Amino acid sequence: MPGFEGTPWQMILTRAGVPDQIVDRLNAEVKGIMTAGDTPQQLVKMGMIPADIGTPAELKRFVESEIERWAKIVRIAGVAGYV
Fold it and tell me: Where does residue 72 rank: exposed (0-12), middle (13-18), buried (19+ CB within 10 A)?
């Protein structure tokens, strides 16, 4: 659709109800892995752009904004998905 840009992104999830302390630890560990050694360069070679979205709460807000954004685009385009 003209006027819209879509950029794929990925995240790591866990089940609901995991204690915040564990989620924060996982977040810190993944951030450490993503910035260690030549990992950023290897990701770029694979066509990825490493980005730090921030805290788990910030990631949640980002995902919510993406859902809202794409729902609007789907409504404007008049398309529906398969259920």
Answer: exposed
- pTM assigned to the model: 0.74
Task: Give the SS3 label for residue 35.
Answer: helix
Q: For residues 74 and 80, is the Cβ–Cβ distance under 8 A?
A: yes
**pLDDT digit string, tens, across residues 51-67:** 888 999 999 999 999 99
Count the neighbouring beta carbons within 10 Å of the beta carbon of residue 31. 13
**H helix runs in the chain, sequence order:** 20-35, 39-45, 56-77
Q: What's the CA gap between 29 and 32, in Å, rounded?
A: 5
The residues, any chain, with a CB within 8 Å of residue 56's CB and separated by 6 or more, are 20, 23, 24, 27
> What is the C-alpha R_g of the chain?
16
